[in-house]
Amino acid sequence: MSNTKRIVVIGGSAAGPKAAARARRLDPEADITILQKDPDLSMASCGYPYYIGGVFSDRKDLLSTPAGVVRNAEFFHNVKGITARTKTEVLSIDRAARTLHCKNLKSGQDETVGYDKLIIATGSVPRIPPVSGHDLSGITPLKSMEDTDYLRKKCDERKVTDAVVIGGGLIGIETAEALQRTGIQVTVVELLPQILMFLDWDLAKTIENHMKSNGVRIITGNGIAAYLGEGESLSGARLQDGTEISCTLAVVATGAAPNVALAREADLAIGETGGLEVNEYLQTSDPDIYAAGDCIETTERITGGRVLAPYGDLANLQGRVAGENAALGNKQVFPGTILSGICKVFDHSAGSTGLSVARAEKAGISTVTVVIAGPDKPHFMEGRPMVTKMVAEAETGRILGMQCVGPGDVSRQVAEAAMAIRGGLTITDLANADLPYAPPFSPAIDNLITAAHVLQNKIHGAMKGISSTEVKERLDAGEDLFMLDVRSPAEYEAMCLGVGETLIPLGALRKRLGELPEDKKKEIICYCKISLRGYEAARIIEGHGWENVKVMEGGLVAWPYELG
Amino acid sequence: MSNTKRIVVIGGSAAGPKAAARARRLDPEADITILQKDPDLSMASCGYPYYIGGVFSDRKDLLSTPAGVVRNAEFFHNVKGITARTKTEVLSIDRAARTLHCKNLKSGQDETVGYDKLIIATGSVPRIPPVSGHDLSGITPLKSMEDTDYLRKKCDERKVTDAVVIGGGLIGIETAEALQRTGIQVTVVELLPQILMFLDWDLAKTIENHMKSNGVRIITGNGIAAYLGEGESLSGARLQDGTEISCTLAVVATGAAPNVALAREADLAIGETGGLEVNEYLQTSDPDIYAAGDCIETTERITGGRVLAPYGDLANLQGRVAGENAALGNKQVFPGTILSGICKVFDHSAGSTGLSVARAEKAGISTVTVVIAGPDKPHFMEGRPMVTKMVAEAETGRILGMQCVGPGDVSRQVAEAAMAIRGGLTITDLANADLPYAPPFSPAIDNLITAAHVLQNKIHGAMKGISSTEVKERLDAGEDLFMLDVRSPAEYEAMCLGVGETLIPLGALRKRLGELPEDKKKEIICYCKISLRGYEAARIIEGHGWENVKVMEGGLVAWPYELG
For chain A, what is the domain count? Predict the structure, then answer.
């Protein structure tokens, strides 16, 4: 028997090939094999919706290096010195013998593959609600190249006029945009009260509004009850409330579960989340077996809880760590996630990092929070608005989370917030952060810094904030709030709340204080487009003795409801 | 005498109005006055080059709020409750009497203004080399609205065909682009060996190349010797080496010095940098006097040294701190700078944060460093390249600095690096950072993370890097290096070094090892477009026994010289 170390990787999508490549680079002697059930390797699965929607049209781009070389078995052999076997399904793991029982899907032959170190990167499997009609033709998840090819073909044929997307998560929303862009009328059906659960309701609602303005229909709080067919083909969808939607294409995007069937059969520990349990070295309960990617659970860094974090970037990072540790022994630690994510939705972007208020409070952390709106550049550079919600720990001021949506440069905002959270920065740290500024890139004071400033003001009592959702609830409940819009008449003309508000432009406010309620205890709610002038107004009014003056956070830009 | 606190601010550009506004918000009772020598207030001076170059054409945009209201004295009175007096020059400070001796430039009258707390925000004054002819008409700095109006007029008139910009710093380069965009042939003259001194030579050179490809002429290592005139008008410039350039417009952008004349006369402490000395509360050597903006020196956070950091964003942040402390006593600390900056140069961006190798070594810190090149998005999303240089402390791995240039999304890169430095993150932390990823925004592995990975590889000996500048120097010195390009023939055809390199595509390398030098000790330098394949090649070659294999960092994308 040779002394060459045999490293075997199950799974050839993101984490698997990365693990194999890293192991190869660190151990030129090892015998490294990837076993992949699918026909392709290293698929850029995050790119599927963009190929379907026609953002690019060369299918090979999903499978090739930036230099245009397809990452097939020959590529892995010649370039990486790795044996990559596609259409090879692993049927079971014999941990005692350190062997895998495999089936060659091309030849139908069974065979046995031995390993010294094994890396499991089996990804996830789509969750398919087993409702009646789910096997009609025209219904597909979006998980594989095969699914991608199917949806692209449907778009290219231009025969489908109406489609439903079941599930308003990341994949559902990206797919809905892709289909809608090719001229298909898309209806998104989401069981929960909102789309994009990584966002809070109010921010998700602004994205929902933007999708609707691009023609997508969105139905929340409703799920699929049955697919309807004509013969063997899909002709419609019936929802749980009885609504029927005519459609000949349905994409099922109701989430995915860690693919741990093999691991479970091999008696490897599975966590409460349903993901494979691994330690900080990404080692499973068997020291000879590592795991990486969507099939594992990982540590949420802020609370220390275990979570599923099926993100493409983390799969790559975990693959690198697992590959290194499999090759050299436990050297690299994977420190966990802060759940950073982002997506593009037509002309808006939506991103999040760290904890929401709900998630933090669930973990027993008291929070302070703020919503601001602001442009991504100065007005003279045609800055585009963004709404930012920031969450900090009440006791320490440590930043816990941040969400950002809008047409502006959300990517920079979320990236810098992710780094701030990773570095344990506080509101005070952010308030004087030194970020790169020039007019083509940001306002003089970056929105993240502004959010910290406003949060400081709230904490020190210089500003009392009220959320748009609280305002709406109280107005809907018939409360008599004094709503004060301090924009110009021209701005008001173009767009307003229409809830019986009073308009006094900020510049005239000091002279028109007589128009405010006589009762100095009456609650007054100030706002403007982004509530910066609203804040100025509140300070002026408070300076004149009114005692219950609030600023509606984020102003009209962050108002998630219809405008008057 | 009233008990109302009198807060007086000298200077009405960025830091001054911010300080006044902050003081007002925190102390509704105070009597707050801004004394401004110029006719305008709150000018968006960072926007001057964009107005000059026609990016926008409404002059008012430089002086107004995002809602379009001009920030004049009436605005400050009505909206902010602040007395803002323009064309009012402060001639001297009487610290004992706590009075200012002022001159009303409209009426010519002298007057005295008393203060309880004073905030000095006098900005900077342009350094004008006193060479012969410097008073000819057609020569201007770019410092004021008046200068801006003058340059915009020159562009609009379309009479100037040739201009020189003296100084290749931030303002010089932004102005050069602005003028060139309006059809003027611009020559930038820089005394130092490179433009944009916040960048290292190699990265600055790629920006220089990009400017040249946009038609700007750039002369480095040469200064202005004399302006030449026809009558009273500029007709040319003679450089220190005797070169003469025909031009009818010259912009002097040779830097600015803190404007500390008033403070110096009042015997306030001035630092070695020439900036006003302040403590962490931005308090000068007189406890009743605060200072903020370009006139002060501040702490460079990493080394603790004192620096000038004349950035618009810091001026605003400092103004906020000084205003708060003047109003409420010393509450807020300004923690200093990490020298983050960015600029747009035609279709490229250039940014920097933290320390360069030179600056770190000067402070006695040993460093490790790396240059990488990579796209800002996956290839199928038309990712645009960027070159990133990262500097870390050798002993601890703590990130010290980062520079980034190229057509890609440099802004996000520098912003996240700035936050990483602020949080004290190390290479190990960055190697598994959790950043927001989706194909429209970044590659699966963000460039900053890739830089950390490559630095890990260098530190652990998995990769030996060599800089493009070292390669060039050694080739120029006639050394016989084995240069190995591992791209495809088609890529080679389109662009190559042309230094006698050998081309073996990576995919063929394992079969063509016979073409490598027989001597296994011979130095082999591998590279490709970005040197990712170059790194793979080096690992393969080392795996076959060659002992001195290096990767040219950043590949052809980071090569700052002409290509063959």
Answer: 4
